[in-house]
Amino acid sequence: MVAASPFSMRYKKTKAVGIPTIDLSIQNKSEVSRMIVNACEELGFFKVINHGVPEEVIGRMKDEGAQFFGKTMMEKREAGPARPFGYGCKNIGVNGDMGELEYLLLHTNPLDISERSQSINSNDPTKFSCAVNNYVDAVRGLACEILDLAAEGLWVPDKFVFSRLIRDVHSDSVLRLNHYPPSVNEWDPAPSKIGFGEHSDPQILTILTSNDVAGLQICSQDGLWVPVPPDPTSFYVIVGDALQALTNGRFVSSRHRALANSTRQRLSMMYFGAPPLDSWIAPLPEMVSNQNPSLYKPFTWGDFKNAAYSLRLGDTRLDHFKIA
Ligand code: GA4
User: Which family does it belong to (predicted)?
Assistant: First the structure.
């Protein structure tokens, strides 16, 4: 008899919920802004198509990722432990969270990338750093475009109020490549394993893509898990905690998780757009009124990040910054 997975008892039901798809090539920009605002308010999660990120830029980054994860464990460990940046296997963060995955965490600062490239692709470090820098430039541009449209849709007079934070040269943005090895085979149809546990992203905005293997799920408003169909040509956009705070709770940071239950390996790539460590995050004055008083105390991104790392992956860390 096959023993029940320790995780299977904790599963909530899954549900077919429509994930908004937003076509960024639509000429009517106020319509696009409106759709982005709706998606950020309802689910904090949506898909963008016709996003303008060149296929080769995505392809080169995926190839570098696949090449890295195909190395021996000893070679991968040369990239250094992911504390905070480098190669990680199963351990997530520093407080005992675990998942069925291995990953590469990189700061997006070009100097950090070029220093680390040597140990990640010693045959051709420049090829690796070029792939990462081009990818980061492209997805940062996409994140900024989405944030500017969101600001317009919210009727905030300063259109660049969000994107400025992640465009800053001192931005604390991060790139993450996750590799979920195949976890089941036809003779062992084991119950789903948690690849990366339920959580929200602490940053402003996440831009995610993957290969064509399923696994990502998002939590709907009524607490049901919604499977996200993989789409290697599109990007999924995830509202982070910092954007929820900046919009005084009008946008919701989306809780999500990844299952590792496929016969095929899953590779996903996430850009997490974050402000500089000393940037202040507080609800925008335009989002606050007598009817909607400020929900959060002002905090610096550095304070918030420290709180995130002192808590568990699944904790709702914004609660610690709520005004009582
Ligand atoms: C979730 C989003 C990003 O993957 C990440 C993660 C980070 C890590 O893996 O080191 C954290 C997690 C993430 C949130 C809470 C803390 C920090 C693990 C963890 C338990 C890189 C990030 O910035 O926050």
Answer: Belongs to the iron/ascorbate-dependent oxidoreductase family. GA2OX subfamily.
- Any ligand 1 atom below 6 A from CB of 93: yes
Instruction: With H, G, I as helix, E, B as strand and everything else as coil, classify residue 223.
Output: coil
Question: Is 271's C-beta closer than 6 angstroms to any atom of ligand 1?
Answer: no
Distance from CA of residue 150 to its chain's centroid?
A: 18
Would you say 304 and 320 are in contact if contact means Cβ atoms under 8 Å apart? no
Q: Which of 150, 148, 197, 183 is nearest to 312 (CA)?
A: 197
Residue 250 tokens, joined? 């009008």
Residue 59, token pair as written in the block: 């392809």
- For residue 251, which amino acid is it? F
C-alpha span between 42 and 254 (Å, rounded) = 9
Residues 180, 258: contact at Cβ < 8 Å? yes
Catalytic residue of the set 255, 257, 266, 317: 266
Nearest residue to 82 (alpha-carbon basis) of 166, 174, 172? 174
Residue nearest to atom 14 of ligand 1 (CA): 313
Q: What is the pLDDT along the chain (324 residues), one digit of tens a residue?
A: 333 333 333 444 555 568 999 999 999 999 999 999 999 999 999 999 999 999 999 999 999 999 999 999 999 999 989 888 999 999 999 999 999 999 999 999 999 999 999 999 989 999 999 999 999 999 999 999 999 999 999 999 999 999 999 999 999 999 999 999 997 666 666 667 899 999 999 999 999 999 999 999 999 988 999 999 999 999 999 999 999 999 999 999 999 999 998 889 999 999 999 999 999 999 999 999 999 999 999 999 999 999 999 999 999 999 999 998
- The reply to whether ligand 1 has any atom less than 6 angstroms from the CB of 88 is no
266 among known catalytic residues: yes
Q: Which atom of ligand 1 is nearest to the CA of 203?
A: 23
Looking up tokens 């496929």 gives 262
201 lines ligand 1 (CB under 6 A): yes
Domain ranges of the chain: 21-321
Atom of ligand 1 nearest to the CA of 200: 1
